[in-house]
Amino acid sequence: MTNILPLEERLAMAQTMTDQPDGPGKRIGKRGELTMIGNVVPGGAELFRKRLPQFQAEAAYWEGRVGTVQSLRILLFDNDTRFVLSLLYDGDFKPYLVDIATQAAPWLDALADGVLEGYPGITSPKAGEWVISLLHPTEFSYAAHPDVSVRDLTRMKKLSAAVSDLLDAAG
Q1: By C-alpha distance, which of 40, 5, 8, 33 is closest to 18?
Q2: Rounded to an integer, what distance in angstroms lies between the CA atom of residue 130 and that of residue 163?
Q3: H or E stretch covering 31
Q4: Where on the tree of life does the source sit, at the highest rank (predicted)?
Q5: 62 in a domain, yes or no?
Q6: What does the DSSP 8-state code read for residue 40?
Q7: Which CATH number covers residue 103?
Q8: For residue 1, what pLDDT band results from cuts at 50, 70 and 90?
Q9: How many domains are contained in the chain?
Q10: Do residues 43 and 97 touch, judged by C-beta distance below 8 A?
Q11: pLDDT at 142
C-alpha cells in the first residue's frame, strides 16, 4: 500500500503559476510557457513531415544557440489542418522572442514557412503579433525543477562529468 502524505504536506509543495511580466503566457519560477494553436496551410503537413528528419536532427544545434529552451513540441491535428506548438523556456517573453529571432531564424523559418498559416517570418516586425494572436496561456502547469535554467543544467552536467572523471582517475 502506498503512503500518501497528509493534505497539508502536499499543499506545502505547491508551485505558484504567475503571468509573464512582459507579455502573454504563464510562468513557474524561471520557466515561461508558450502554447500556440493555429492553422496549417493546404499541403503544409506534407511539407512539414518531409522536412521533419532535418528539423529533428538540427533541433539541438539551433535550440542550443538560443540557450533557454527546456522543451519544444509541435503537433498537427484535425486531419493535418491545425497545429499546436508548445514550449517551456527560461525567462521572460520578449527576450525569448528576440533570442529565437537572432539565434535560430533560419531553422524556425524552414520549419514554419509554407506550413503554418500567416507565418510572417521570425525576423519580421509582425512576428510578435503573429505569436500573440495564436497564443493560449496554459491553465495548469507543473515543472519538476522550476528554478533550474538550461544554463544551470548544462553547468551541472559539466561539473558532474568532471567529478566522475576525477573519481575515475583517483580510483
Answers
A1: 33
A2: 46
A3: strand 31-39
A4: Bacteria
A5: yes
A6: B
A7: 3.30.70.100
A8: low
A9: 1
A10: no
A11: 87
Whether the CB-CB separation of 92 and 99 falls below 8 Å is answered with no
- For residue 16, give the nearest of 29, 25, 5, 4 by alpha carbon: 29
Do the domain assignments include residue 124? yes
Calpha distance 4→14 (Å, rounded): 15
Range 139-164 average pLDDT: 87
Structural domain span for residue 109: 18-170
Give the span between the Cα atoms of 112 and 76, in whole angstroms.
12
Asked if the structure places residue 5 within a domain, the reply is: no
What DSSP assignment string belongs to 108-170?
Answer: HHHHHTTTBTT---TTSTTHHHHHHHHB---S----SSTT--HHHHHHHHHHHHHHHHHHHHH
b/e map 122-158, b = 16+ CB within 10 Å? beeeebbebbeebbeeeeebebeebebbbeeeeeeee
Backbone angles phi, psi at 55, to 5 degrees: -60, -45
Q: What is the pLDDT of residues 78-115, one digit of tens each?
A: 999 999 999 999 999 999 999 999 999 999 999 999 99
**What value does the mean pLDDT take over residues 1-9?**
87
Mapping DSSP to helix (H, G, I), strand (E, B) and coil, where does residue 6 land? coil
How many other CB atoms are found less than 10 A from the CB of residue 169?
7
Three-state SS at 75:
strand
